[in-house]
Design brief:
By secondary structure, the protein is an alpha+beta fold. It has helices at 2-19, 23-34, 39-44, 52-91, 110-124, 138-141, 178-187, 227-242, 295-300, 317-325, 338-344; strands at residues 128-129, 135-137, 171-173, 192-201, 212-222, 249-256, 259-270, 277-278, 283-293, 309-316.
């Protein structure tokens, strides 16, 4: 009697499992057969009334049936889950060959593009890129660069100072990228040829100034370096960057604490009709500052100015981008206006190279 009941339950459960149409139906079959009040569970409760020999034989048989039922339920569940996944994948198919919507196309910011252009030009001259922290100490930002104690740049109205640290040092947001020159000279043995792009910070805001802006500096330290090397390097850079082969330049004496002698560099231009045009047109436009590295700066970095000489130059990235691409207001660089970005931005694959071109 017990044997026939076990076999009948097995056949009924396997038939119900095979007919189940979804995961919920399979779960219902499992509960009906193997749950706490399931048919197989209830049948096992009758084993107490059997003799020891009958109980042994019946237990073996019912365990075999339980394993068959459990295997059948698991196989059916796996089959239904696989079928459901196939159906979902077919329904949610994505055609990856479809083009991106034109209105969703992004562009590269003119600042990043300009830095890439400068890197391409100076990279071809043998320069490496050097970087440093935005938060600097007084030594690297002022003292090592030969700024005297009473210099205006050290005042609160010109510089973003941070609260005095516990060790007594005064930290600030760097006012120029020149501290990286100090870190490079102190950490690397000459010859040195580096360009230094990065953010700088000053307390100023108008049409041609913003509290945060970008600079690019270059530094060369070696034996026998002269102003002739400086002039040749900068003239080649300016002609390549603006794409004017006969671009005229003018070096005017100036003063910077960290260079001696120092010079301001002008390039030829025209302002006729209220339009600025770069080229050999009889007028002049100031473009950057430069000079030979001051002996005091060399000494502060542990270099002998009698053995090594060097030159440095610095320019505003936004300023030369404005001149090249006709951008009238410096503040628009940081306003995140999508219309402005779409107009002045660059395609993602428009990588500047000297052979392929620096810009569109």
């Amino acid at each position: 009697m017990a044997d026939s009941n076990v076999l009948q339950i097995r056949d009924d459960v396997l038939k119900a499992c095979a007919a189940a149409a979804d995961i919920a139906a399979v779960e219902a079959v499992r509960v009906d057969a193997l749950g706490k009040k399931g048919r197989v569970t209830e049948l096992m409760k009758t084993m107490g009334a059997l003799s020891p020999d009958e109980r042994k034989a019946f237990g073996q048989q019912i365990n075999t049936v339980k394993d068959e039922i459990a295997a059948a339920i698991e196989a059916k569940k796996t089959q239904l889950e696989s079928a459901a996944l196939d159906t979902r994948l077919a329904r949610e198919v994505l055609d990856v060959t479809l083009p991106v919507r034109p209105e969703a196309r992004g562009t590269l910011h003119p600042i990043g593009q300009t830095i890439d252009e400068l890197t391409a030009i100076f990279g071809a001259m043998g320069f490496e890129v050097a970087e440093g922290p935005d938060v600097e100490d007084d030594f690297h930002n002022f003292t090592a660069l030969n700024f005297p104690p009473g210099h205006p740049a050290r005042e609160m109205h010109d510089t973003f100072f941070l609260p005095t640290a516990e060790d007594g040092n005064r930290y600030l947001l760097r006012t120029h990228t020149s501290p990286v020159q100090i870190r490079t000279m102190m950490g690397k043995k000459p010859p040195i040829r580096v360009i230094i792009p990065g953010r700088t910070y000053r307390c100023d805001y108008d049409m041609t100034h913003t509290p945060m802006f970008h600079q690019m500096e270059l530094l060369v330290i070696d034996k026998g370096i002269t102003m002739a090397h400086l002039r040749g390097c900068l003239e080649e850079f300016l002609r390549v960057y603006f794409g004017v082969d006969d671009l005229t330049t003018r070096f005017r004496p100036s003063f910077f604490p960290f260079t001696e002698p120092s010079a301001e560099v002008d390039i030829g231009c025209s302002r006729q009709g209220g339009e600025l045009k770069i080229g050999n047109h009889g007028d002049w436009l100031e473009i950057l500052g430069c000079g030979m590295v001051h002996p005091n700066v060399m000494k502060a970095c542990g270099l002998d100015p009698e053995e090594y000489q060097g030159f440095a130059a610095g320019l505003g990235v936004e300023r030369i981008a404005m001149l090249k691409y006709g951008i009238p207001d410096l503040r628009t660089f940081f306003e995140s206006d999508l219309r402005w970005l779409k107009h002045y931005g660059f395609a993602a694959l428009d990588v500047p190279t000297l052979t392929g071109g620096l810009a569109r």
